[in-house]
Amino acid sequence: MDFMYLNKEESGILDFDAREELVRKDGFFDTAKKYISVDKDTILHRQALFADVLKSEALSGFLCALSEKLTEYEPLVTYHIKAKNREEHVRNILFPMVYTNLVDFIYTSLSPIMGGVRSEAVKCLYELAKEDFASKEYQSIKAYYEKNAGKLNYIRSITIGVNLNTTFMPKEAGILALHDEEFKSGDLLDRILRLDFAKDDFHCIAPLTTIDKKLTFQENQQINYAVLKALGSAVDSGLHHCGSRLLGYARKKILNYIKWQSSLAFVASAIARIKLFQDKHIPLCFPEISTDRTFDFVSLYDDTLCRVKEKKEIVPNTVRLESVVCTYIVSGPNSGGKTVFLNSVGAAQYYFQLGMPIPAKSATMPICDAIYKVSVEKQKASNSAGRFEQECITLSKILQTATANSLVMIDEAFTSTSSSAALPIAANFIAELCEIGAKCIFVTHYHQLCESEPKIAECGARVDYLHATINGENRVYFIQKGKAEANSYAQGIAKKYGLL
Q1: Which domain covers residue 376, as residue numbers?
Q2: Concatenated DSSP letters for 175-196?
Q3: Is residue 362 assigned to a domain?
Q4: Cα end-to-end span (Å), the chain
Q5: Smallest Cα–Cα separation from 315: which of 466, 490, 475?
Q6: Is residue 433 exposed (0-12), middle (13-18) or buried (19+ Cβ within 10 Å)?
Q7: Structurally, how many domains does the chain consist of?
């Protein structure tokens, strides 16, 4: 069982159009998108994990620390495939150390908190480590390794001596010392002037540089080989008796944990996002799964605003999107919160199908097979198509691929042409979506779309209306049901600035 799935992996789960606009270049969403699921059991499986995370700081801290360890250890397995000769030998002898460290860390960290854990994913991880920890093989490897190579556990840096030729190119190198302390970035002037550097041999005279960011892959491999060759000479004396069976056993066992590295990296980033909401006291809930395409939100907060503003500055929306309604036309004044509402629904759907809590007091949501978020006002014209034509191409693609289980979010369509041309096209698009049965939130400033288009009237109860209105006391907008009056746009803006 994978940490994020129940006995299976999913691929090609959701189809996103204009993905950058849905997530607004959010690095978390961009990384997490491959974990979006349409499987009910998988979503519930993850909700149980994140519910435990919400209750236990110890568990969330452990999962983040384990993710860091697995990310650090993963190259050991990757490079092992390409390693040769002494480099291969040195990497081989690290497997028992990594294996015993991982098992010990997982077992001792989880044992005190397992009584309050309900997540099957965490229970599976704990049982795996518990079984290894109790095995004779593990105890034998740990005892042998600590006796013969315990110093490997404490090596955090090395001092290297390098001889240069007349053109200052390295010609020879060797290890001078192994250290249990890491070097620190420094500055030559500080080194000369500051007295507190006098007895600190671990401050460099220049800033430390991350090797893999400055060197080519070939250069990185060369320095890795040189260091490993020297390390091999330094520690080989205590390990020359390590048999191939012992090393092979440890490597096979460590793969049971390393295979979860990618999933746990997602979990760690999800925990960081959840903590951001918690630090701002934003309510979090796990949505109930709707079976009839109903969306029901109580105090839904916009994800992006939560990350850049304080709670008191954000207006949550309480809205119910009925199952019998295919399209909700959202109207209201510019800067009236329509787009914020649209984006809050899109982000909530994303979090929900990742199995994470959403920023709301409570919610009911269906599982969607595709999410389309199109802000056609920002569509870039290509060399072969103008802006209006590009809008038509994008929306036509949605009509070709959307299903009754899709969520379509359109923000201010057809603003690149006149209202007389835009209204019948928009009405026809909405009517086509109603025939498909997809759920659509259609944001527009064309209030005439609500009343004058025959195609809309033909949809009957499959089309309903929301509008942005102003709270007189706080002068902020929120979304509520019903059509907006034509003159309410100007009145709303005037009220916002105290002119009415």
Answers
A1: 284-496
A2: EEEEESS--B---HHHHHH-GG
A3: yes
A4: 62
A5: 475
A6: buried
A7: 1
Annotate 358-368 with b (16+ C-beta within 10 A) or e (fewer): bbbebbbbbbb
Token code pair at residue 254: 């460590």
Contact 417, 442 (CB under 8 A): no
Beta strands in 100-228 (DSSP E): 157-164, 170-179
- 3-state SS record for 280-316: CCCCCECCEECCCCCEEEEEECCHHHHHHCCHHHCCC
Q: Which residue has the higher pLDDT, 284 or 458?
A: 284
Among 272, 323, 260, smallest CA distance to 4 is for 260
- How many whole angstroms separate alpha carbon 346 and alpha carbon 33? 13
Count other C-beta atoms under 10 Å from residue 336's C-beta.
26
| Residues paired with residue 174 on neighbouring β-strands, in sequence order | 161
Distance, CA of 94 to CA of 213 (rounded, Å): 24
Supply the pTM of this predicted model: 0.78
SS3 helix, strand, coil % of the chain, rounded to 5? 55, 15, 30
For 270-309, the pLDDT digits (tens) are 999 999 999 999 999 999 999 999 999 999 999 888 888 8
- DSSP code, position 358: B
7 inside domain: no
| 429 inside domain | yes
Average pLDDT over residues 317-334: 89
Copy the structure tokens of residue 317: 């929306």
Average pLDDT over residues 165-173: 70
Structural domain contains residue 338? yes
| The two structure tokens encoding residue 395 | 């929306």
**372 close to 345: Cβ distance less than 8 angstroms:** no
d(CA 46, CA 24): 25
CATH number of the domain bearing residue 463:
3.40.50.300
- H-state helical runs in 315-465: 338-353, 387-401, 419-436, 454-459
Least Cα distance to 440 among 368, 337, 499, 493 occurs for 368
Q: Is the separation of the CB atoms in 119 and 126 below 8 Å?
A: no
Q: What is the per-residue pLDDT for 213?
A: 59
Specify the pairing of strand 439-443 against strand 327-331.
Answer: parallel
pLDDT tens by residue, 398-451: 999 999 999 999 987 777 677 777 788 888 999 999 999 999 999 987 777 766
